[in-house]
Amino acid sequence: MTNRNTEAPSRIKTGANQQRAPLFDAVREHIETQVVPFHVPAHKHGQGIPEMRDFIGEKALLMDLNSMYDIDDLSNPISVIDEAQHLAAEAFGAEHAYYLINGTTSGIHTMMLSALRQGDRIIMPRNAHKSAFSGLILSGAVPIYAQVEMNGELGIATATSYESILQCFHRAPQTTALFLINPSYYGICGELRRIVELAREWEASVLVDEAHGGHMYFHDELPMTAMEAGADMAAISTHKTCGSLTQSSILLYNSKTIARHKVSNTLNMMRSTSASYLLMTSIDLARKQMATRGKDLLEQTLHLARFARDAINQIEGLHSFGPELIDGRTVFNFDETKLNVHVRRLGLTGFEMERRLRQEYNIQVELSDLNNIMAMVTIGDTQDSIQRLIDALKSIANKCRIQKFRKVTLMPEMPETIVIPRDAFYSHKKSVPLEKAVNEISGEMVMSYPPGIPVICPGERITRDIVDYIHILKEHNSHLQGAADPFVDHIQVLGF
Ligand SMILES: Cc1ncc(COP(=O)(O)O)c(C=O)c1O
After folding, report:
1. Residue 366, ligand 1, Cβ within 6 A
2. Distance CA 446, CA 436 (A)
3. Which residue among 48, 188, 355, 422 has the highest number of C-beta atoms inside a 10 angstrom radius?
């Protein structure tokens, strides 16, 4: 099965004006005027922080400006930022695009706060990123969790089926919004268009976390995107997959039900009033590059990812899973640039593989879990970088004994929600030893980061399985986050 119907017209819009980068040009012209700065930032073109300037280069610090009339203002854009956002909207097929300087996290918070009021219901998969759960705390919305299919062989969550979303709508017919992830961290996509249509039938808005899918807008062999499927809004981390600088993202808007001024007002509550021009100009240039050359760049990226997947699948004991997961039941698409490798047959966990790649071969992957690693292949890769990864994996595999039976550790069952996340967050809490927390109601989130999917959320009942799973993550030195105790020997639970 291919990712897309190749007979469908291309979704990619590349108008001639996509060659423009109005914000970048305005910043460059501003620098050329050699204006004498009596404004923030205090470093004043780098003069005030010479050590940084000497390392990073003068140009970067000259670009580190604050809003003023010739370079516009993100809080109320009326000239070059407005134009840059319009070009982004056109490139991504949205009615409007908002630049984000606080990552996709702020886009997810903005989507939820502009679509939901306290007490409103939102259907969402339990394997969402932590920002969706903090969105629940901020908004006071009530989550209706949709069952996520697990792949027991690989030890990962795959996607949420149409049927499980339908069941949620039957359980909670007055649902205001549906929250989806497209694709998952591992590149897996569900039946997006049909699920969006289902939400329309139930008069729910559709909000999509597309943190890992920004590049999918620019190549027809990549999975269907939220805007193409008719979602109301989607937040994309242009920094993760489109080449802009870390923390820069875009919120795409295409809604008939959520007023645009509400989204703008919410954004202005959520973000800094000192938007970074380094971040914003990087979005402008990344959009220009993707709109004008994205297809060719992603062609090469896909070629490299396919080459790597094939080569890794020749290595005994390793399995680079991908498009074969498409089953037409739950999984409908796969983003091939996510190079997942199941490592358990080598007798290693993903965490151990990540450490060995880093310590022995100076290679850093994006993500590891108990069973797998994920290496991102992007427009920045070359045949050489890909070959280094393949050679390192081959070398590690050669040093391991292949296991006949691999033990795959799964995340525990979805815990029961006793108190909604916002109420749990504001409740009285006490700290108890992790071992003594079984049956208590959690007062905080605990997750391995990345991927940042909470094992337990505020308001959920802690089970024996959850405590055991946290112990396993600790034993394997997983990077745990969310709890007040950084070592998670103790956990906050509700009570005095
Ligand atoms: C699925 C998912 N959603 C949202 C985010 C948040 O994105 P950002 O880091 O741009 O705030 C992440 C970050 O890792 C993510 O993996």
Report:
1. no
2. 16
3. 188
- pLDDT exceeds cutoff 90 at 300: yes
Using CA of residue 418, residue 422, residue 427, residue 431, what is the dihedral sign? positive
Contacts of 72-75 with C-beta under 8 Å, sequence gap 24+, read 72/23, 72/26, 73/275, 74/99, 74/101, 74/271, 74/275, 74/280, 75/268, 75/273, 75/275
> What local confidence, expressed as pLDDT, does residue 442 receive?
97
**pLDDT computed for residue 341 by the predictor:** 98
Is 121:96 a contact under the CB 8 Å cutoff?
no
Which structural domain range is residue 384 located in?
294-399
Ligand 1 mean position to 236 CA, how many Å?
9
**This model's pTM is above 0.85:** yes
Ligand 1 binding pocket mutation candidate from 99, 100, 105, 367 (most atoms within 8 A of CB): 105
Predicted confidence band at 13 (pLDDT cuts at 50, 70, 90)?
low
Q: Do 375 and 425 reside in the same domain of the chain? A: no
Q: Same domain for 320 and 352?
A: yes
pLDDT of residue 1: 37
The CATH number that applies at residue 468 is 3.90.100.10
Residues 310 and 388 in one domain: yes
Q: Is the CB of 237 under 6 A from ligand 1?
A: yes
415 falls within a domain = no
Asked whether residue 332 falls in the same domain as residue 374, the answer is yes
- For residue 241, the CA-to-ligand 1 centroid distance in Å is 11
Q: Calculate mean pLDDT across residues 360-368.
A: 97
- What is the number of structural domains in the chain? 2
Q: Is the CB of 125 under 6 A from ligand 1?
A: no
The verdict on residue 432 lying in a domain is yes
- Is residue 137 included in any domain, yes or no? no
